[in-house]
């Protein structure tokens, strides 16, 4: 279990936490849990998500099991820097969909004394590192990798297998389009698709 860092008010620096994993692994659920704890502690919290993510709701960050928290959809990472001023905690969901500037934005916010919590897919459907996530994980003080359960083997799953032949990198979807697979199940599924 992740426990929040204690704040040294003399230091005046924040930090970055990254929550990563495959689809259906609980990334957003963990992000919401941490943000709601901060809200309960009366900290000023702002949550952002890419405006292209409209799967469940236009303005809410929503987990697969319908847990939700109000958010601000933004078209680019640069908007976060403007809207996050005066916050104690900034949450960012689906970070893999942002441009590479998200890494600089997160570091700048942390350097201003803000706790930054980022959630996103660490790999795309082809099993490759996804967008800015590797750089975010490298610069973060804390990285939590969560796992789904493989729908074929019951083992831990860390791959998001796309069930159709759409080759676009970004394709929003749910259980109809994706399933979480273990390394072995993903290997065999990809071989079948060749």
* Strand percentage: 25-35%
Extended strand count: 12
Radius of gyration: 17 Å
Characterize the overall form: elongated
Profile the largest sheet.
6 strands, parallel
In which range does the helix fraction lie? 25-40%
What's the assembly state of these chains? single chain
Order of helices and strands: EHEEEEHEHEHEEEEEH
- Tally the helices: 5
Strand order of the largest sheet: 5-2-6-7-1-8
Mean pLDDT across the residues is 88
Ends distance: 39 Å
Uncertain segments of ≥5 residues (pLDDT<50)?
A: none
The structure class reads alpha/beta
Provide a quick synopsis of the model:
This protein has 194 residues and is an alpha/beta fold.
Give structural attributes.
26% strand, 5 helices, 12 strands, 194 residues, 26% helix, six-stranded parallel beta sheet, alpha/beta, two-stranded antiparallel sheet
Describe this protein's structure:
The longest helix has 14 residues, at 27-40. The model has no long low-confidence stretch (mean pLDDT 88). The chain has helices at 27-40, 77-83, 101-111, 133-139, 183-193, and strands at 15-21, 45-50, 60-62, 68-70, 72-74, 89-92, 115-121, 142-146, 148-149, 156-157, 159-162, 178-181. It contains 5 helices and 12 strands. Helix 3 (101-111) runs parallel beside helix 4 (133-139).
Explain the layout of strands and helices.
Layout: E1 15-21, H1 27-40, E2 45-50, E3 60-62, E4 68-70, E5 72-74, H2 77-83, E6 89-92, H3 101-111, E7 115-121, H4 133-139, E8 142-146, E9 148-149, E10 156-157, E11 159-162, E12 178-181, H5 183-193
